[in-house]
Amino acid sequence: MPPPTAPKSGDALFASVDRVNAELFTLTYGAIVRQLLTDLEEVEEVNKQLDQIRDARVEYSNGLADLRSPKFLGYNIGTRLVDEFLAKSNVSRCVDFKETADVIAKLGFKMFLGVTATVTNWDAEGTSCSFVLEDNPLVDFVELPDTCQGLQYCNLLSGVIRGALEMVSMKTEVTWVRDMLRGDDAYEMRVKLIKQVPEEYPYKDDD
Amino acid sequence: MIGVGKAKQYANVLDKPLSRGRQEVSLSAFAFLFSELVQFNQTQVDNIAELERRLEDAGYAVGARVLELLCHREKGNRRETRLLGILSFIHSTVWKVLFGKVADSLEKGTEHEDEYMISEKELLVNRFISVPKDMGAFNCGAFVAGIVKGVLDNAGFPAVVTAHFVPIEGQQRPRTTILIKFAEEVLHREARLG
């Protein structure tokens, strides 16, 4: 059942936005990951970069310390994408984290990637759950070579979720539990709500 | 967690059926991703030329794969071997698959025999991009130029490919022209084949 606050269904939402061929998206993402692997050399560094991260204090190990773009990819995208999502989906304030998770799974994933996720494995407190993806447009044509077995190829997605939720006052931790590229039977990420940040007023101008 | 009797399986990518390429994602998803590609590369370079080269590199990787994929899926495992054939393959087939439409125009350069141009009024990757004044003639179309180069190179048509803004009269936004300059050997071969 769709959340009562969401007037648009996921399908209607996806149909209402401009779309591109998923292969262009997939291959472009692949090109990005490849560039990161070449530039950063360490798989672990790439994982961080894809997800988020690098706040301005962390210097690039190769000496290219640069404050122009301290946060990157997933997180960065999430912080901006959430605006578009709220503007187009007509979703109003979610009452709790459970509803938030449902909205992300049914509407968020659908609106941007054209797929839906299943929300499962809630813990007793209702603060952490799993998103399970059967269809994942990021990974078409992808195989991890032996040298990159530690690569969290889909870290982009976890970064997006973390970034988007942070913009609506929820600090979360997102980790991958299952990854088909590593031989698992599905894509599953675990989202854990760390805390709800009360909104501050007056708002700072450049945050 | 691994279930009993359900060992982790390593599925070879070539054993999977080839997707038919009908799946779509939202344009914004791509635009966000592309913007991150540009931003990340901006942190890795000192000048515009270097930035364009890096975007071209990224595009090249896409082009090489697109060629393989489309030759297999759309052309029944055949690949164009003649100059005009490969150009029209890019202009129609590649463009249609990647950008959802055939390119606006494909022209031969008037001044040089070895130059061809593919022009697009509003290149998909430039749709949400505005280039700051201090970055001069920088064009994110370098990524698309890289795709074209990737296709050409891997099909055996080495070329230098660059992206340029060309102002159109009466329009606020310039169009993007992808300029293709073929290597000498390509033209020699064409001449030999007659």
Q: What's the short version?
A:
The complex is a heterodimer of chains A (207) and B (194). Chain A contains six helices and five strands, in the order αβααααββαββ. With 207 residues, chain A is of the alpha+beta class.
CATH fold category name of chain A: Muramoyl-pentapeptide Carboxypeptidase, domain 2
Helix content of chain B: 40-55%
Strand order of the largest sheet of chain B: 2-3-5-4
> Could you list the spans of chain B in which at least 5 consecutive residues all have pLDDT below 50?
1-8
Which architecture name of chain B does CATH use?
2-Layer Sandwich
Spatial sequence of strands, sheet with the most strands of chain A: 2-3-5-4
* Overall strand count of chain A: 5
The tally of helices of chain B reads: 5
Q: How many structural domains in the coordinates of chain B? A: 1
Give the N-to-C terminal Cα separation of chain A: 36 Å
Largest interface: A-B, 48 and 42 residues
Strand content of chain B: 5-15%
Could you state the CATH homologous superfamily of chain A? Trafficking protein particle complex subunit 3
CATH class type of chain A: Alpha Beta
Q: Segments of chain A where pLDDT lies below 50 for 5+ residues?
A: 53-71
CATH class of chain B: Alpha Beta
Question: What oligomeric state do the depicted chains represent?
Answer: heterodimer
- In CATH, the architecture of chain A is 2-Layer Sandwich
The helix/strand series of chain A, from N terminus to C terminus, equals: HEHHHHEEHEE
Task: State the share of residues found in helices of chain A, binned by percent.
Answer: 25-40%
Largest sheet of chain B: 4 strands, antiparallel
Protein name (chain B): Trafficking protein particle complex subunit
Pfam family, one (chain B): TRAPP
Subunit structure (chain B): Part of the multisubunit TRAPP (transport protein particle) complex.
GO biological process, one term (chain B): endoplasmic reticulum to Golgi vesicle-mediated transport
